[in-house]
Design a protein that fits this description.
There is one protein chain. This protein is an alpha+beta fold. It folds into 5 domains: about 5-50; about 65-115; about 130-300, Nucleotidyltransferase, domain 5 (2-Layer Sandwich); about 310-375, no CATH class; about 380-465, no CATH class. It has helices at about 5-20, 20-30, 30-40, 45-50, 65-75, 80-90, 100-115, 175-190, 220-225, 245-265, 270-285, 290-300, 380-385, 405-415, 420-435, 440-450, 460-465, 485-490, and strands at about 130-140, 145, 150, 155-160, 165-170, 190-195, 195-200, 205-210, 215, 230-235, 265-270, 300, 310-315, 325, 330, 340-345, 350-355, 360-365, 370-375. The strands form 6 sheets. A 5-stranded mixed sheet has the order 5-4-1-7-10, sandwiched between helices. It has a 4-stranded antiparallel sheet with strand order 13-16-17-18, with no helix packed on it. α2 (about 20-30) packs across α3 and α16 packs across α17 (about 460-465). The termini are far apart.
């Protein structure tokens, strides 16, 4: 058995006590001759090991190394795998796939000894309360679902580099609205503000000046001015200058992944519930940073302003199509608002429509551009009166709220002829009208039952299932009330 450093240290300890090598060897668990060797040398086993300077087998690439080195000298960024594939073409039949790892080790050693100089990163000393760094990181890889639907999202991560305190909000894009919400959430939770706020060159905070440099957007400068912080950004292409928050992104997602494994479920009822869960995980991690955070809070200025609203207001005209166009996307609104100007509050995740000081509609905000969100309830009342518009309606697919409604339409068309007619379109629209007037889920279940029997649904058969003509009223038996016990209680003075 190989002698360990711990055994030799025990041997030396025993020798210093009594100087008897036999007893010391026995207590250290080694042979007497071995003990004498270590006592005489005064070295630990790890100190006696000599580095091996010879190969146990010949290097298979010795003959072709000059050829490989010549190409590395000309293009040091060449990968070992690329060189190996080229070498196998140059010398067919000489090398097999199992020798790739050997070449990778030798190329790695060559780069360390003869390769080009590498960029050096310089660790920075952070001062308490000096700055907050903000960055966006993808959260989709966590596999989160909202009511069973995959949730593509980002995490806006705000970090204080000195203490590593952080706060996180859930967002859908790297927009100014998301940045505004993330920064405000962080500083209002702290109740104080750092001197600087630092971001990378994202379009949320900066814009191209046409000179190779980037300047700050007016909206971002307004946010910083309101919160009392000075804006600064990293150099273009120098993401390492935001290194603390960049490193925090990876640690954050590892922590969330571990907590998801403990939770045993990645599904949440809503985005708000998911964000609350994320922030609970972050708050727990911040508990270990309390001492250094206290140093930061002691030198930060107090936050003495109110929180800015986190939405943009727009005045938009409702078209004759019962739609509005907001941020290059189309949304339907109640048809009674046609021709009116409505006020739209556009936040990072939602869109609200207000008219006359009253909120008329709240819906999920569309991401990207040239998308549409059409609710059939907003125009079905007009469409049943103009069924001829259904066949070529621009947003026709939105008039099939679920697959069951699409199957219903196909069954109606298929029962009569190969080509849809106005009569068949009207038959379907009346069913859709019934869904808008009652409960879509009840109508959908009725359609599923009818389709399962092979029947062709029509509005009357669906109405019969959804709203039965005879309503059963339960018969309730009359109860006799005996007040004698109360009379006895009053007579005894129990309520005095």
């Amino acid at each position: 058995m190989r002698t360990s450093d711990a055994q030799v240290r025990k041997l030396m300890e025993e020798m210093s006590k009594h100087g008897k090598i036999g007893v010391a060897a026995l207590r250290a668990g080694m042979d007497r001759k071995t003990a004498r060797k270590y006592v005489q040398s005064g070295q630990l086993p790890s100190e006696r090991v000599q580095p091996r300077t010879w190969r146990t087998r010949p290097d298979p690439f010795d003959a072709d190394w000059p050829w490989i080195e010549e190409r590395l000298m000309g293009a040091p960024e060449l990968e070992a795998k690329t060189l190996f594939e080229a070498l196998r073409e140059h010398r067919p039949g000489v090398y097999d796939e199992g020798q790739l790892r050997t070449l990778q080790r030798r190329v790695k050693r060559w780069r360390a000894q003869h390769g080009p100089e590498k960029e050096v990163f310089f660790a920075q000393a952070h001062r308490p309360g000096e700055a907050a760094q903000t960055d966006f990181t993808h959260g989709t890889e966590l596999g989160i679902t909202i009511l069973g639907v995959a949730f593509a999202h980002l995490l806006c991560n705000v970090v204080l580099p000195f203490s590593n305190w952080q706060w996180v909000t859930v967002c859908l894009s790297e927009s100014m609205a998301a940045l505004k919400r993330g920064v405000q959430s962080a500083v209002f939770r702290l109740g104080r503000r750092p001197e600087w706020h630092q971001t990378d060159n994202s379009t949320a905070a900066t814009h191209d000046l046409g000179t190779g440099k980037r300047g700050f957007n007016a909206a971002y400068l307004g946010l910083m001015g309101h919160l009392g912080m000075k804006p600064r950004t990293t150099e273009v292409g120098a993401k390492e200058q935001n290194g603390d928050v960049e490193a925090s992104n990876g640690a954050l997602k590892r922590r969330l992944e571990q907590q998801l494994l403990l939770r045993g479920d990645r599904d949440f009822e809503s985005v708000d519930q998911y964000e609350s869960w994320v922030q609970a995980v972050v708050a727990q991690a911040n508990g270990a940073r309390a001492r250094r955070l206290a140093e930061e809070l002691a030198v930060m200025a107090p936050l003495e302003v109110s929180r800015l609203v986190e939405y943009t207001e727009l005045d938009v005209l409702v078209t004759s199509w019962s739609t509005i166009r907001v941020a290059r996307n189309t949304y339907s609104v109640p048809s009674r608002l046609i021709g009116e100007r409505v006020r739209v509050r556009l936040s990072e995740r939602t869109l609200e429509v207000h008219y006359g000081g009253q909120r008329e509609l709240t819906t999920e905000r569309l991401q990207g551009s040239n998308s549409h969100q059409i609710n059939y309830r907003h125009m079905i009342w007009s469409l049943v009166q103009k069924p001829g518009a259904f066949a070529r309606y621009r947003y026709r697919d939105c008039l099939f709220p679920t697959l069951t409604f699409r199957r219903t339409y196909d069954a109606i068309v298929g029962a009569a002829s190969a080509e849809p007619t106005l009569k068949q379109d009207l038959a379907y629209l009346r069913i859709l009208h019934l869904a808008a007037a009652t409960m879509e889920s009840d109508v959908e279940r009725a359609l599923e039952d009818l389709l399962a029997t092979g029947a062709v649904p029509d509005v009357e058969s669906v109405r019969t299932i959804v709203s039965p003509s005879q309503i059963e009223v339960p018969q309730l038996a009359e109860q006799d009330v005996d007040l004698a016990s109360y009379d006895a209680l009053l007579a005894a003075g129990g309520l005095a």
